[in-house]
Specification:
The chain is mainly beta. The chain has 2 helices and 44 strands. It is globular.
């Protein structure tokens, strides 16, 4: 059992570790618990940094925070040791009143560092907040090259920042990162739209579960976060999470976006995204490819049993485009293989104070969305897709294409193959009005098809009593071997 030292270990133990400190036999004790107490009451920052340095010298331990508030200065705490746990007892708040550019509360470069039962309040009083680049903003915990680390049972209050960032610029991605039972509150302090996610986690394996992400709604037009969670991982899962008010619920990409050394082509892929709930989103789940380098195959992903709530508001940045959408975010070619999307529920609602009914939404919607990235299921991407199975999902009140399988900006050299789309139940949806506004091409059908070979669309039941359907399907360029049977429209 670990021994306990009350208060922070003095600096005199740095370097050569003495036989004993406060009657604790250091050689016989593999873990030391350090209490943050009034010993350093004038500077909690220094107390925490000293505790980290002390535990580093003995190979790790636990820093225990008794209940209370701890004011810390940003940019000064670096956890470079391994096997260190930050643990709150009761209600513990670590906060800063300084919100400046490149401001992080705690940076972690050691391995197996755990944050447990802490509240990070990073809202600050300063107006010096980013308006174009969130990664020059404030970060509550920055895991920079940290391996096998965990954040659990923590709460984050942030002002338009990434509350947790796990990355390793220009180096190998972390082997594993676990993030669970956390609650993040994202709030903008200025009415300025720029790309920022609530968390941005990048590792070869990620376990992301039982988290709650909220964008705090204000009078700002731009109140939503870019995504509730931006996750880059090739193995692992995102399960049983709740995302309220982000533009995208989950933004998923198998590998890091811009880093040259993080990709391992021999590392097998196996990803599950399931049992998540998304509300007031523009896109439920967005799947990115084309970033970071060529040939980073996107494969073996299962998306199932998610509830995706899309929300329409009269704001230019808030036009719902898709329930599950594939998007080429960079210039690199990436194949997408062996994807299963099933038993998800996609529901479309709207702000009743902006629109009186779905007919009014329909009239505004087709003017606002350009067609390329729309569809309850949008496979309109300039990458080769193979063996994609989409089945047994439900869609309600979605006034656009059910399936968009055509690239208007694509090339016939990139053709989707072996696409199965079957057994969906769709009510009061698909498709409202022909999209014919110059310079954008026409999209007028429930199924928009093209650039595909061996496509099967069977056994789908579509009811659209409140929407005047223009056409069942639209067959466009480079569509071969289409099986289209058993689809009913009422």
């Amino acid at each position: 059992m670990a021994k306990t030292v009350y208060s922070v270990i003095p600096k005199k133990i740095y370097g050569v570790i003495p036989k004993s400190v406060y009657n604790v036999d250091m050689a016989a004790d593999a873990e030391l618990s350090v209490y943050i107490t009034s010993y350093y009451v004038s500077s909690w920052t220094q107390a925490i940094q000293d505790a980290c340095a002390a535990l580093k010298t003995i190979g790790g331990g636990t820093i225990i925070f008794p209940a209370g508030d701890y004011l810390i200065k940003p940019l000064l705490i670096n956890v470079s040791g391994n096997n260190i746990t930050f643990k709150g007892v009761g209600t513990v708040r670590l906060y800063t009143t300084e919100t400046v550019l490149w401001n992080y509360c705690i940076m972690v470069t050691g391995d197996n560092v755990i944050f447990n039962n802490l509240t990070f309040d990073h809202r600050g009083d300063s107006a010096l907040l980013p308006t174009t680049d969130p990664y020059k903003g404030a970060i509550s915990i920055w895991f920079n090259g940290s391996d096998y680390s965990t954040t659990r049972d923590c709460t984050f209050y942030t002002y338009a920042i990434v509350c947790v960032l796990c990355d390793n610029y220009n180096g190998l991605a972390a082997n594993q990162f676990d993030f669970y039972n956390n609650h993040q509150y994202f709030q903008r302090k200025v009415d300025s739209w720029y790309d920022v996610s609530n968390v941005n986690l990048q590792a070869r394996t990620i376990h992301y579960y039982n988290n709650v992400s909220n964008s705090v709604q204000t009078a700002f037009t731009t109140w939503k976060a870019r995504s509730g969670a931006e996750l880059h991982f090739a193995k692992g899962y995102a399960t049983n999470n709740s995302f309220d008010g982000s533009q995208v619920g989950i933004l998923y990409e198998p590998w890091g976006s811009d880093y040259s050394g993080d990709y391992d082509p021999l590392f097998g892929a196996d990803v599950l995204i399931n049992l998540n709930t998304v509300t007031k989103a523009v896109i439920g789940i967005e799947l990115w490819t084309g970033m970071g380098g060529a040939d980073r195959t996107f494969r073996n992903v299962t998306i199932q049993d998610n509830t995706l709530g899309l929300y329409f508001e009269n704001k230019a940045y808030c036009k719902p485009t898709g329930g599950i959408l594939f998007y080429k975010g960079g210039a690199y070619d990436t194949e997408i293989q062996d994807i299963s999307i099933h038993d998800n529920a996609i529901n479309f609602t709207y702000n009743a104070s902006d629109y009186a009914n779905l007919a009014a939404v329909r009239g505004a919607y087709y003017l606002a969305v350009y067609g390329e990235d729309t569809g309850a299921f949008c496979l309109n991407i300039a990458n080769t897709m193979r063996r994609i199975s989409i089945h047994d999902n439900t869609v309600s009140q979605f006034p656009y294409s059910l399936l968009n399988l055509y690239r208007r900006s694509g090339s016939e050299t990139v053709v989707h193959e072996d696409i199965e789309f079957y057994n969906h139940t769709v009510t009061n949806s698909c498709y409202a009005e022909p999209f014919t506004h110059s310079p954008y091409p026409s999209c007028k059908a429930c199924f928009t098809l093209g650039y595909s070979d061996t496509v099967s669309i069977t056994g789908n039941a579509i009811s659209n009593a409140g929407i005047a359907l223009q056409a069942q399907k639209e067959e466009l360029a480079y569509l071969t071997n289409l099986t289209y049977t058993g689809n009913t429209f009422t």
